[in-house]
Amino acid sequence: MLKELQFSLSITLLFACGFLYQFLLRSSCFFCLTPFKFQQDPEALLSHGRGIVFVETSERLEPPPLVCCAVESAARVYPEQPVAFFMKGLNSSTQLPSNSSYPAFSLLSALDNVFLLPLDMKKLLEDTPLYSWYIRINASTQAYWLHISSDASRLAIIWKYGGVYMDTDVISIRPIPEENFLAAQSSRYSSNGVFGFLPHHPFLWGCMENFVEHYNSRIWGNQGPILMTRMLRLWCKLGDFQGLSDLRCLNLSFLHPQRFYPISFREWRRYYEVWDRDLSFNDSYALHLWNYMNKEGRTVVRGSNTLVENLFREYCPRTYRDLIQGPEGLVTRKLGPGNK
């Protein structure tokens, strides 16, 4: 009887040790990158030309709430499409410290159709007109380098793989029905914060050539919205918008400012004011929150009933639930300079 009891206790102890080992193993790597999702090949992931793309050109690994909201809202609006977040701070051996808290990174990693990918600019720009420029440039001497490197990366990614690029302060609210498009900030002036094309579209190849030919790091946006506007004027002869109709030229569409910019950059504070329920976004596909203008560091406050709080609650509820705190624990992290 005693031997049987000892044997039973030994078996129980063995199972308990095995369970404890598995628990500790998982706990020590709780904040590690999910191997399958992290090791995805961009070519395989985005080759169908239907991906949604975000880019982070700083070394940051813990995105602030607005970035998380942008990615989560895209994942919700496009549940059958891959959402690829290219991050310069990632590489093939990246592992987050197990004794640190990375709630935003963990939140994004847990979304089924979100994939966090390393941003290797040298590899990305190969076989594009941007490569010769990139290997010659001294990044440390360039004004606005985080913006410029982001401008270059988004052109190369969408040219190679196709899909839709969005800045990390763009909240998606409904699917974009266009394949080849630019987004108007205002009449005759294009944004580069949102655009979409099929792979190897000649417009983007022309943009990359123009990027190099007219490169000037001292002018903010010269390789971004100014470049897109320059190229649009070379590509098309467009007049002003009539009503809410989009403009079409050759094989691309120039989408009305209401689609992404119903609130202009001069009025960006409206996002952080109490929500005016008469303000409708029925004609919009997504909203650009102009975070580059937010030098005051305005944030989302739980219970404030601001427009931005209501957008978070509706379009990125997990981000709102997990990352937005009340006034006493106000979230004050701001979007970094690598994104507009």
TrEMBL record:
It comes from the Eukaryota. It is a single-pass type II membrane protein. GO terms for molecular function: acetylglucosaminyltransferase activity. The keyword Transferase applies. Residues 197-321 form the Alpha 1,4-glycosyltransferase domain. InterPro entries: A1-4-GlycosylTfrase_dom (IPR007652), Glycosyltransf_32 (IPR051981), GlycoTrfase_DXD_sugar-bd_CS (IPR007577), Nucleotide-diphossugar_trans (IPR029044). PROSITE patterns: PROKAR_LIPOPROTEIN. One of its GO terms (cellular component) is Golgi membrane. Its main location: Golgi. Coiled coil: none annotated. Keywords: Glycosyltransferase, Golgi apparatus, Membrane, Transferase, Transmembrane, Transmembrane helix. The keyword Calcium does not apply. It holds the Pfam family Gly_transf_sug. It is found in: Golgi apparatus membrane. GO terms for biological process: protein O-linked glycosylation. The chain crosses the membrane at residues 7-25. Belongs to the glycosyltransferase 32 family. This is Alpha 1,4-glycosyltransferase domain-containing protein.
